[in-house]
Every structure is written in structure tokens, then in C-alpha cells.
Amino acid sequence: MPEPSQPKEYGHWINGGWQQAEQGHYQVVNPATEEIVGHAPEGTAAEVGAAAEAARAAFDGWSRTDPRERAAVLERISALISERAAELVPLVQAETGATMRVAQSMQVPTAADRFRRYARGALEPDTLPLAPHPVAASPLAPGGLIGAAAVRRPIGVVACITSYNFPIANLAGKVAPALAMGNTVVAKPAPQDPLGCLELGPIMKEAGLPDGVYNVVTGSSAVTGEALVAHHDTDMVSFTGSTAVGKKIAEAAGGQMKRTLMELGGKGAAIVLEDADEKTFKSAVMAVGSTFSFHSGQICTAPTRMLVHRSLYEQAVAALTHYAQSLTVGNPVDNSTIVGPLISAAQRDRVEAYVEGARQQGARVAAGGERPELKPGFYAAPTVLADVTPDMTVAQEEIFGPVVVVIPFDDQDEAVRIATGTPYGLYDYVFSSDAGRAWAFAARLRSGNVGINTAQRHPETPFGGFKESGVGRDGGSFGLHAYSELQSIVWPS
Fold it and tell me: Where in this chain does the record put each Aldehyde dehydrogenase domain (predicted)?
């Protein structure tokens, strides 16, 4: 694999080999330097069809492969990703613009961890025995004692369409459980940073994955993804991205009754109750501050709304302002940098438009709000917006950048109304000195995930959202359930 400074021209990865792009390539650009990282293939419907057909042809053999062999292949994939980290990290860092800290700890290692986790998953029991049941005779069959079992079976060909913030980690979270269950995959990475996902193809082949089990097609427009969702050989669509695109995919998939797993947008609320002591309050500030410092706020689980009891409101604004102003914004390969660039000029402009819109609606910019004097690169300053009301656009829509809004509340009922008053319900957080009180409060939140006094994640929990934040759950053993169908087997005892 060449260094990111030596742009490589990629093909699609189809049926265990590189396939030259019929319609040429497009440039993948480093968000920090605006230099070309590599050239990704511009996909066509025909190329998508070739990938889907390869996956369909490989399904029968892979689905009937002994789970122990599937586990061994996934374990080897994990080991090879770890072995190639010195080559993969610079590539993924360059195409995502992630800081070295994030690229080294959360991008490549997480991908290896997920393949390792689902190597174990391939060996998890797939059969749930059910107690024998006495049944009376009917016109259909004689009476007797009937035995049964529920068995998880692979779905078939899974289209994995991923987001740009954590390209290979997000893809590994889909591909690993899908393969563990015996499915085959056609991956469609986000157009901004698909190169690391393409590089996984040769790694998987070297690990012993049969040809056609993992395929990758890319493209800079919606054509590739739309063709993949519509193709008759895909049985399931697993998508991570915006709610708007997720709705379009769901509509198209519904026409063919394809299974879907949708991890969509979020507008996380960190709710600080009035009983928060000094330690809890500091934990809340640090958790909300991760919106600035963790991949420049480009994460769907970010607590981008801080809902604070009015008695703590000004203290919260001051603490977040100090936090935001203390962060170093700059080149992500510099070890002193905490906040790197956004993925593109378009995303930077979108974030700036949200901040300007908030100003016009009456919000106070307590920190940030102006473009950093850094060139080249697509940088946005860590921004704190105070005096925000729940109906403002910045309090309702996902911004996907280093912007936090702070909103006061007077009692728990108001906090619940504000927290649940958006179309989203992915990840919320409750901070209280009384964990039991926070547990009870969490039950009132229409959110798929709730952190109590922490922004840490647990890797085995079911992950997904309520409302417009998605459909279905993955993570841990729940990921195996997501990529399988239940088949009931019945027999006379």
C-alpha cells in the first residue's frame, strides 16, 4: 500500500480481485491539506450488478461453511488489520481528516476489534430449543406432542452502505456480524473516504475469505448506492447515515420487502439535573465537550444539546465556553491538535450556516462562531451557543460539527419535553448525583441509548434509535440477530 502522499488509482473490489472502473475515477481529498489522497472508481449500475451477482454466487458456499472456519477467517482478518495498522492508519487519517489520536485509537483498531468480536460470534449458538407442546388432532394432522426450535439463518446478500466519519470501523461493524452469520456482502462506502474500505478487500482475501463474499463498489454520486439498494440480488440493506437518505433507502427497499437496518441521525441531549454535585457537573461538561474534541463533532451520538437546570445554567455556559476556547484547532497529524477539520468544504459551510442562522434567531455565540484562520483545510471553530430556545433550528436539526447548544429548564417535565422534542432519539445522557433518579428519568426518554453520568459506550449493548434515528439494533450478539432471519422447525416428538 503506498503512502497517502502517493495517490493510488483504485478499482472496484469484485469477486476477489480489482475491476477497472468503466467510467473512470474521482478524487479523494485530504480535508486538512486539500491534497489528493487517491482516486476512487466511479461506479455504474452494471458494476454494482456484477458485485451483487458475485455475492449471490458465493452465498451458498459461504453460508454452509462450518462456523469454526468462518470464525478462523474473521480472526485472521482481525490479525491482518492489526499487522497493517502502520499502513492503514495514515491512509484512513488522510482521507477522513481525523486527528492522529482518533485514527490510531478509534478508526483502525476498532475495525480489528470488531472482526475479532464476531469471530467469537460465529460460534455463538444459533438454535433456541422450545419446550414440547401437546396439541389436539385437527383436519391438518393427528394430535400429539410437538417439538420445535427457532433457528437463526443467514439472510443472503447484504448491502452495507456506510458513513464518512468512521469508514472502516463502521463498515467492520456491519461486515463482521454479517459474515459471521454466513451472509455475503456488497459494500458501498461513503464517497468522501472509501479507500480504506477498498484496501480491506486484499486483506480479506489473504485471510482466506472466498472470492465474492466481500465486494466493494464506490461512486461520488447517489447512482451507485441507489443501484445497490434496487438490485434484485440484495436481500438486506444496512445503512448508516442521514435520516433523509435513510428514508429514501427504506422506501426503495420496501418495494421489494428487503430487510433493513438503519442507523440514522441524532440530536443527543445531555440533561444535567439540579442535584448534580461538582464531580457530576464536571463529568457532564467533559461529556458535552467531546462534541468539540472527538472528530470535530462528526458523530451521531454526540451530546450536542446540553439541557441544564436553570440554577446551573450560567455555570454550564461558562464552563463550556472555557473548554471550547482551550482546544487547539489545527492540522490533525500534529500531536497537539485536538480539533481537526470537517470532512469537506460543503460540510464546513453547512455548519457555519447553522451558526449564522442561530445568531439571526437570537442565540448568543459564547465561544467560536468564526472560521479559524487556517489554510488550507476545512476547519470550523468549537462553538457554544447560549440563549437557545428549543424551537430554534440549531436545537432541532443534526449539525454534525463542533457546535453545542445550551438550553435551561426549570423542572424534570420540561427537561423531558425539550429532550424528546426533536424528530431524533438515538443517544441521550443524564447527569445526576442520584443514579437511581437518573435511571428512572431515563425511562421517560424516547431514545435508543441513555448514558448515566458517562459518555462511554458498552460494546455489547444493542445500538440503534427511536423515531427518525433508525430501525433495528446491532452491537454485540444483537448484531448477529440483525443479520439473520428466524426459521421455526417443528417435528413430532
Answer: 18-489
Residues 51-68 pLDDT 10s: 999 999 999 999 999 999
Q: Which CATH number fits domain 269-460: 1.10.3720.10, 2.40.50.140, 3.10.450.350, 3.40.309.10?
A: 3.40.309.10
Which DSSP symbol is given to 390? T
- Indicate the pairing of strand 184-188 with strand 214-216: parallel
Nearest CA-CA partner of 188 in 197, 178, 199: 197
Burial class from Cβ neighbours inside 10 Å (0-12, 13-18, 19+) for residue 432 reads: buried
Give bridge partners of residue 409 from the DSSP assignment.
309
CA separation for the pair 52, 402 (Å, rounded):
38
Rounded CA-CA distance 49/422 in Å is 38
Nearest alpha carbon to residue 263 among 115, 459, 426, 446: 426
Name 9's bridge partners.
Answer: 39
Q: Delimit the CATH 3.40.309.10 region(s) of the chain.
A: 269-460
**What's the pLDDT tens digit per position in 196-251?**
999 999 999 999 999 999 999 999 999 999 999 999 999 999 999 999 999 999 99
Q: What is the pLDDT of residues 262-321, one digit of tens each?
A: 999 999 999 999 999 999 999 999 999 999 988 999 999 999 999 999 999 999 999 999
Domain spanning 8-264+469-492, CATH class: alpha beta
What's the rounded Cα separation, in Å, for the pair 408 and 420? 15
| Gap between the Cα atoms of 404 and 303, Å rounded | 8
